[in-house]
Input
Amino acid sequence: MIGLFFIHSCVKDIPEPLFNDGMIRGYVRCYEGDIPYGIEVVSKGPYGTKTGSTDSTGYYSVTGLGNGTYELVFKKDGYGSIYKYGIQIFGNDTVRVNAMLYQKVEVIKMPEFIEFYHSSSFRGMLGNEIIIETDTRERDQLPSLRFFLDTENNVSCKNYQYTEMGYPSARSDIDHAFYSVGLNEFQNKSGTELFLKAYVCNGSDIGYFDNYHGDFVYSTLDTKNYTKTCSYKIP
Amino acid sequence: MARVAKILFHLLFMILVLSAGCSKEDEYIPGLEGNMVGYVYTYDEYGYPFEDHSNVRITALGHAGRHSVKSDPEGRFEFLDLPAGTYELNFEKDGFGTMKQFGVKHLGGKPTVLFPQGYTSYYIYAFIIYEYITTEIINIKIENDTMFAEFEFKKEDADPGQMSLRIFFSDVPDFTKHTAQFVNNYILWNKNGKFSRSMYYTEMNFQPGETVFFKACIFTAENNFYHFNPEFPDNYIIVETDTYFDYQTNETIYPNLGNESEVFFFVFPE
Output
């Protein structure tokens, strides 16, 4: 009894909102051009959770919101979820928040990396790229991979110095299909040993800055499908 | 009987303690509480970022008093359970100019993220603090539509790609920063250790042939804001705030503005 009284006494009162007719609205697009119907939009705020859904043109609205700061999640099966933070509703405001969803990638088989080259070894290849030959002959069977690079061998999608998308390619003078990974933005020196780990990710997913956690987020990154950590010495 | 009285006494005592402990929170009702998150990056006096942005003290001044937190190595900071209100934020670190931000609105509920309205999530927003200026201005010449400057660098490894000067112009030799008739910022580019830039006179309201006096202060402007963090793809832009407007003195504050140089002069061209 005393315990219940104690809990009741010290639970912080959530006040009644001064305004309760705020609205968050906007539109959601699917990068691949799919009809953006039925995307769930969940708002989390000081007075609980409310949910909206997009119509066939991608428009949504979440109404009846009290004053305060909100977070939004946009989600649909088969797509990466997008999070938005710090959405402020002062009074009976209407705030617009838009989003773009990218399809997740289905994986048939994760490739093995069998050889590493530098792009300068091949005629017609320009730039500063690592060419990563796989154990797969058909490039259509390779998923798009996002590569994470570091000079330490504990590289992962959470711990890295540099990231770049790797796109499956093929050419006649390399036996198997391969990935090319650009290093142009990476400050590296000849002889440096790099460690790489790649995760399945939609090749069009440009990511976004999660301004609450301070991380760069790729919504379609598949943290369960990744390659072994490999090393490569810059020639 | 004595046992019942003892239980009642304990119960009464707990009620008194609990009511005293919770009454302070009532002051803020009907306001909400919530976290406030932002980013602060530290740069050296030449405009290059430090790898470690930790230990910047961020103080939020508001109706509920002073609240302070420190940044982590990534420059992120987070106030916990800050009462709703409008705040002044101060960003301080020993050896760095103090940055301020006024009128920060915090509504409570889910975290406030310090991010300017109108920017999308393709931008990274941060407050910037710069090291104090140690470099000294030795000479500034304005000749033939070109400005030349010589500096004395106090740090052995100094290698600035550019130097930024805030220059105050006047038609009288004894003037102050506040009585200057024209003020402008100039970036001088380093070419083999020689700092220079072109001059444009169209905005200056001086007469041809008139002697114009000027003095300058070094300040830091961004040197390398793009791509300094290779974790972020190249199409992401860091939006920074490194100056603030002081409503009391009615001027823009450059938090690490260096000392004033001596007074130089040139003849305003035809």
About this structure: Helices of chain B lie at 2-22. The two ends of chain B are 107 Å apart (CA to CA). Confidence is low (pLDDT under 50) at residues 16-29, 224-228 of chain B.
